[in-house]
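# step 3/5: fold
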Amino acid sequence: MHSIDALFNSVAALPPSFESEVIAKAVGEQFGLVGQYRPLVSERDQNFRLETADGARYVVKITSFAENPLVTDFQIAALLHLEQFGLTGVPRIVRTRRGGDRGIIRSNDGDEAVLRVVTWLDGELLSDANVTPEICHRFGCRLADLDIALENFSHAGDRQDLLWDMQRAAELGALLIHIDNRDVRQLVEEVLNVFETSAGSALKELACQVIHNDANGENVLLDEQQELSGFIDFGDMLRAPRIVDVATAAAYLRTIDGDPLRLLVPFVAGYNERNPLSELESDLLYDLIRTRLAMTLLILYWRVSARQPGDPYREKSLQGEATAFDFLQNLTTLGRAAFRERILDEKSFKNK
């Protein structure tokens, strides 16, 4: 397992910066696709939306130089598994002209990276929608379906070293020095202490499987009928207990004003309908949601110090995570006992 410093460095590393003309030439030659390119903001890779003359859309991904090739293999294999499983609403791997599942791109300076193309999924981002309890119930059902589809999939690269691995949350304590807000730092440190002394040990008792690990509102799509139509961005997949997937998604269903569980109760109810959680998993959910929020704040404050003002990912992160501390405070005020009582009372959603 890599040191936590290595994980910091992999995230701090800038994405590849190939010229669009170089990318277009490589994609045209290897995949036979030609069209208009639009840059997409990404944490580690260099991504584009490609639209061809006939209106077909794709995501073109140039893999980070810092990514382990085994992890790249794992991500491709996972999408191929989901295709074979028949799960809809996830990107499909686009094959090269020779039938391969990836290509290679070389810069004018001789730098080389893996080139991937996947299908584009249409839909409204959950983060842009008016999120209702009913939508959250359907979200829970669809995330359960995804976890079921991945349950029996394994790969040599599924234990990737990742800063967003909740199983290693305690190691992020090294980032506390970057939080210059005393209230934020105190609460985050308290949450990490709970994880280190109790929740983290209990998490190790659970069976692991491959999970999406990043089902936030930027990676979840709705169709015109407000049905959950798909999941995107499988770059943070890893092997972990499935409750980590639930807690991660739940950490982004933030209600700042009013009932903090207004969206969480139907979300968990929907997940339980398709893929019921065990008693231990349910017991851990409160602490794991708070852990994900603490991780978000730690990494956010660290990034503010690591990236320059104006950096697209930095600015997007600051805007998107502004509610994390407020939600963490609200859950902490509510307390574990009240959370568990409400979250397990599925009738409180179904009878409304």
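# step 4/5: annotate
DSSP finds twelve helices and ten strands in the chain.
# step 5/5: archive (pending)
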